[in-house]
Amino acid sequence: MATKKQALRSSAQNANISSTKSPSKPVQSKILNLKDTMESEDEKESGVKEMFEVIMRKLSKLDDIDSCVKSMENDHPCRARSMRDNLIFYNINEMKDENPTDIVHGILENQLGFENAKDTVKIDRAHRLGRPNPALFTTRPRAIVCKFNFFPDKERILANAKKLKGTRIAISEQFPEEIMQVRKRLYPVLKKARQEHKQVKM
């Protein structure tokens, strides 16, 4: 009899210990739900962080673009000054292995009347604009940009450019693209003023 009582008592104690160590199913379910909620919150937080990083990267790119635009705006006078001694020569037939400097000197001597231009007019550098296309060497030749060493030489050439009237060749000053766009918009006004015999200069 005593042995049966001891067995029942031992079984009850084991049951109590087991129930203490292992939560009941409702408690386990709550714990699992809490874990899922925490993981879900972590995922949400991770998603927010990722979205924030994307936004910051885009804002950084916008800042870079803004800085670039401001740099270009501030750079206009510098680029204009660097082109101060430059002239562009248009509609001059291209040749393979040509020397643009010799071509410009030839125009100065033969078309504009500059004597001994090779000796009296120093050219720092001259080259064609854009990529070569042999198929267009005569029909649509690339323009030549030429940088003169002495600013008054450039002014003398511009003053004599009217001698090219009736030929294909034309000469103009070189400006930054932004200034060229402004000049293009002003050209109709200039043309109209000249038609009205007004003394105007751009």
UniProtKB/TrEMBL annotation:
<protein>
    <submittedName>
        <fullName>Uncharacterized protein</fullName>
    </submittedName>
</protein>
<feature type="region of interest" description="Disordered">
    <location>
        <begin position="1"/>
        <end position="45"/>
    </location>
</feature>
<feature type="compositionally biased region" description="Polar residues">
    <location>
        <begin position="8"/>
        <end position="31"/>
    </location>
</feature>
<dbReference type="InterPro" id="IPR004244">
    <property type="entry name" value="Transposase_22"/>
</dbReference>
